[in-house]
Predict the 3D structure of the following.
Amino acid sequence: MDRCFRRKMASRERGAEAVEFALVVPIFILLVFGVVDFGWMINNDTMVNNASREGARVGALDPVTADIQATVLQDSGTLDTTQITTTVTCLKPNATACASMADATSGGTVIVKVVYHHSWITPVGSTLMSSGINLTKTTQMRIE
C-alpha cells in the first residue's frame, strides 16, 4: 500500500517544480539586472568623481577654463563624453565670486562641477527611470 500511495503523490506533484521555477526565475532575473544596473551606475559615479577631482587639480595649478574642461574629458575613462557637462567657477581669496576665470588668483578657490547623464543598460533600470539619472560631482581646490 505504501508504494501505491507514493506513486499517486508523485503523479500529482509532477509539475510542481516547473511552477516553482516559473515563479522564482522572474524575481531572480529582476534582482540580477538590478545589481548590474546599480553596479554600472556606481562605477560611472566614481569616474565622474575622478574627472571632477582631476579637473580641479589642473585648475589649482593653472586656472584656465579650456584646460580644465579638456582634463575632465580626458580623465573621464569610459564615460560617453557627449553626456558630460563641465562648469568651472572660482572664488577670490576673500571668498567673493570671480567675474570670470581671469580673476582667479593665488589663494582663491577653483570650483569644478561635472554633470554626467547616466543611461541604464538593462530593461529594469529603464523601466523604473526611463530618462536615466544625472550624476553630479563638485570639487573645490585652493589655487596655488
Q: What stands out?
A: The chain has one domain: 2-142.
